[in-house]
Amino acid sequence: MPTIKIGKQLLTCIEGSNLRQVLLDNKIPLYNGPTRVLNCQGLGTCGTCAVEVQGPLSAPSLQEKLRGPLLKGRRLACQAQVLGDIRVVKYGGLWGLGQDVVEI
Ligand code: FES
């Protein structure tokens, strides 16, 4: 069962779980500011669920590939399946593309 380390939290999930869903199910603040309400609900179109991830995830989706360098190497949590133990960092900014780490 993969583990997800984010901030001081250590979560577990079933391999292949959607990263966005696991974070939301565990009340992790995945979205910043107004995007907590104004987001695409996991369709991969708004880009506001961007996170930095170390560890095994599914390959980038078409939506992520289309964003290319705009994602700064980060992943869209809604497009990623957890394939092993990972470490996740959420950054500030409307799209989670800022430089400051969000304390979780
Ligand atoms: S929730 Fe909109 S891109 Fe992930």
Q: Poorly predicted ranges (pLDDT <50, ≥5 residues)? A: none
* Ligands: FE2/S2 (inorganic) cluster
Going across the biggest sheet, name each strand in turn: 2-1-5-3-4
CATH superfamily: Beta-grasp domain
Q: What top-tier CATH class fits best?
A: Alpha Beta
Give the second-level CATH assignment, the architecture. Roll
Radius of gyration (CA) equals: 12 Å
The total tally of domains equals 1
Q: Per DSSP, what share of the residues sits in E-state strands of 2 or more residues? A: 15-25%
Please give the number of β-strands.
Answer: 5
Task: Find the structural class using helix and strand composition.
Answer: alpha+beta
**DSSP helix fraction:** 10-25%
Q: If you average the pLDDT, what whole number results? A: 97
Instruction: Report the sheet with the most strands, covering strand number, pairing sense and barrel closure.
Output: 5 strands, mixed
SSE ordering: EEHEHEE
What is the terminal separation in angstroms?
A: 22 Å
Shape: globular
Secondary structure tally, helices: 2
As for the CATH topology, it is Ubiquitin-like (UB roll)
Describe the protein.
It is a single chain. The mean pLDDT is 97. The chain is globular, with a radius of gyration of 12 Å. It is built from two helices and five strands. It is an alpha+beta fold. A hairpin with a 2-residue loop joins strand 1 and strand 2. It has a single domain, classed as Roll (Ubiquitin-like (UB roll)). Strands 2-1-5-3-4 form a five-stranded mixed sheet, with helices on one face. The site of FE2/S2 (inorganic) cluster has 12 residues, from loops.
